[in-house]
Amino acid sequence: MIEHPWSVDKSKTVFGIDRNDLHFLDITDNGDLYIKLGDQRITLQDVIDTVKSMNGNQVGYTSSFTLRIPQLITYQIKKIRTTFDLAFKELAYSGEFIGIYPVKVNQRSDFVTAVLRSDFEYGLEAGTKAELQLIKAVTKHEKHRHIICNGAKDPEYLRLIQECLDDGYDIAISIESIHEAQLVTKYFKAENTNLVLRIKPYLSVEGHWSHSTGRDSKFGLSIHDLYNVVDLLKQTGFAGSVRTILGHAGSQITNIEAFTRFGRFMTKIYSELREMGLSRLDAIDFGGGLAIDYKSAYPPDLMLQYARNIVSGIKEQLKEDHNRQPEPNIMIESGRGVTALAALIVVQALEVRSVFPTGSGRYETESTLEKEREYLDRIDKATSLDHMVDIWNDFHEYFGGMTLAGLGFIFEKEMVIGNLERTVRSRLREMKLDSYHSDRLARSFWYPEHIVIGNFSVFNSIADYVLVQQHFPVIPTRDLQKHPQTTVRLVDITCDSDGEISNFYMQNTEKIWFSEDNRPLTMPGGKMGEGIPIGVLENIPSSYFILPLVGAYQDAIEMDHNLLGDLPDVELRLQEDNTWKISWITGAEPIENLLRDAGYADIDIDEDPYMSS
Predict the structure, then answer these.
(1) What is the SS3 assignment for 595?
(2) Helical H segments across 432-564, by residue range
(3) Each residue of 146-170: pLDDT tens digit?
(4) Would you kindly state where each structural domain of the chain is located, as residue ranges?
(5) Distance between CA 114 and CA 109 in Å, rounded?
(6) Which end of the chain has fewer CB within 10 Å, C or N?
(7) Pairwise CA distance, residues 294 & 473, whole Å
(8) Measured between alpha carbons, how far is 424 from 518 in angstroms, rounded to an integer?
(9) Which CATH class is domain 8-70+342-355+448-597?
(10) Does the pLDDT value for residue 404 go beyond 80?
């Protein structure tokens, strides 16, 4: 069968570009990656060149940087509100939508103020008294905004809440334990208090952080504590202060249908609590959980499915309970869904290193040549995956391991293994197998044999990749019109083996698409694979990759591993006259600051810690 020639559209499929949560990216006919803002088409190369021309001589300039696009926060907030309005209309739902942004997701000023600019009614959530201080400051002229105070509360936190109430802020206090309920009834007046009962969701959902649910969750009231808290509130006159119940199903929930069950679960509790005397209870806060499509693998209406399932679950449960209770207002604390799109890391590639010798060489020993011929013959005659796995493991065992025979012999062995691996990949492609998966492999068939050194730190820029194995897309900024030549691992400049990205999600296509060196780029059904596709290997040094969708949590949990601090911050904004503007916000964090944080106050070094380009 003749394969169709490569095209930009195929590259868009491979990298998940121009759809779902990468809708703001696209590719020119010349293969350059660009950003879509309004009617503007801004290539990453134009952004890179502008940053260098404006700031290349400044202290703190480095070739890699974080690009922030706050207007994508506005896009997401409007999309969330519009999506719930549509679901309410489709399902004839009478409750109201109340959006809440949890500042823990990204406390940066440019992100929080973007949330406030985007929606006059959008509320904020504090998880600590420090975050409440932040919220108090940024909303001092907008005290109408709904503020939820979550997290463990001591008397100082509660005093701060009382100060905010006295100053006219709209504060709701979450109660997560008997102890907190006792403190609230002691320090507050029932008539001036808005309470939220945070409840452990006793159900399981599929998601990256679904372990935060169920009876073992660190968050919320256990069912026995809930009964005790309700009794205490009724005895102390606080039953009428409870306006909301809160349940958090987890973060990055991938099983959207689970939100129907979650909606039913929370609605059942809502109805029973109202019948127990909490008659002013009128809202359910469903917390976070709205997934970001890091893989570009979900349906394009993922957000609408999320909204529909929550609303459907509520309505189904109310109907089962004979509609004795009114339809509650729906609060959503989606932070990832609001900010993830608004930042991406722009990484310069410094060099390329090869795992195996390149080119052809002459073997010093006839026995090596004979053994290679033997394996090549076996590879050519293989008819099944099991046969190929046996051959693969055999030659890795035969030529692998340590040796005392000297450098020349090691070089020769590596050259043989590289040749045999390339031949196996070619033969596997010819065999057109239904599956290439085997648990018996000594080494992956597809593991990249080229390493790209990127001028960044995984630990500072995308810490979740290491901490919780969160997948992030990686996309080259050039040669995207080319048939990918091979795949690579992108490694950072830290002295840590975890400082690399090799995972790549192979998109769902009916037939497997391969790189020129016979590595799969797509897979029927979609599958996480190894190796980032690149167009032309020799063009990689000094080129760039981007890591999009890093606006949620990564700024808040960054690590200064190896004293590699923050990259420069650059903002891209579409102006009122429909022209785009690049603003240099801050340079790379100086070594001096990093050393001061480590306790070295007397070392004066203004330089940034990243590699010079």
Answers:
(1) helix
(2) 458-461, 463-467
(3) 999 999 999 999 999 999 999 999 9
(4) 8-70+342-355+448-597, 93-332, 366-431
(5) 8
(6) N
(7) 6
(8) 9
(9) mainly beta
(10) no
